[in-house]
Specification:
about 30% strand, alpha+beta, 6-stranded antiparallel β-sheet, 7-stranded mixed β-sheet, 6 helices
């Protein structure tokens, strides 16, 4: 795809929540290290038990393709550690959005909410279009008609599976003939783990291994090794 790429962070596979948590973990480890040294000096023979435990959580991120082809991304993560701070995270999220929009044009990214409930943080981001989403997340992400995909040189040399009949498939020739249908192509599942994708149209064909939810308007992508996944809808 001939789309510009904006380099936000050298750790390209990290979501903003992971960046925040890494920053807080590093800061917390530094404090724990100093405290451990002080404890050893004061109490000779005291064992240091300050190693941090990693919360056991299942990351469930979601991407919604809206009818105007804007993208709403929802990030969900554990937020149970005492040193996590919602106001600090809110400021970080808004600061990233501000910098992104300054570099890529106003309106590309809007922060819809940053909330915590039951030790889970929920961040909702609204992207103006597929290019804004792809640039911010440093991912391959296309959503549009088959015709639009062909016009920008995307290859559709895939075998997709009917959601109602796994024995029924379509190939590139069939896809090319469905010019008015919409297709989503992404590798974002390789960056964020389990990923739910919701579309405004009824899903008909998907890459092998994708689970279809909610009346054929949503899919869940997990444990799929393919570099790219494809979702066809109309």
């Amino acid at each position: 795809m001939n789309e510009k790429t904006w380099i936000w962070d050298p750790q390209v596979s990290m979501t903003l929540l992971e960046r925040y948590k890494m920053k807080k973990r590093n800061k917390n480890r530094a404090c724990l290290f100093l405290l451990a040294i002080f404890t050893v000096l004061v109490m000779s023979g005291c064992k240091n038990n300050s190693s941090e435990s990693i919360p056991d959580f299942k990351l469930e991120n979601a991407v919604k393709v809206n009818e105007d082809l804007s993208i709403t991304a929802t990030l969900v993560d554990c937020f149970a550690e005492d040193y996590y701070d919602l106001d600090e995270l809110y400021q970080m999220v808004n600061r990233e959005a501000l910098v992104f929009n300054e570099k890529n044009g106003a309106g590309g990214l809007a922060v819809e909410k940053v909330t915590v409930e039951d030790d889970k943080v929920n961040v909702a981001l609204k992207f103006s279009d597929r290019e804004a989403y792809a640039n911010y997340n440093e991912a391959v992400f296309f959503v549009g008609t088959i015709e639009a995909a062909l016009n920008i040189g995307l290859k559709l040399d895939q075998i997709l599976v009917d959601i109602n009949d796994p024995d029924k498939t379509i190939d590139q020739e069939s896809l090319v003939a469905m010019k008015d249908s919409f297709i989503l192509i992404t590798n974002e599942h390789r960056n964020v783990g389990p990923l739910t994708v919701e579309t405004f149209g009824r899903i008909s064909y998907v890459s092998a291994g994708i689970e279809v939810w909610y009346g054929c308007y949503s899919v869940r992508i997990d444990n799929i090794e393919d570099e790219l996944i494809y979702v066809l809808f109309k």
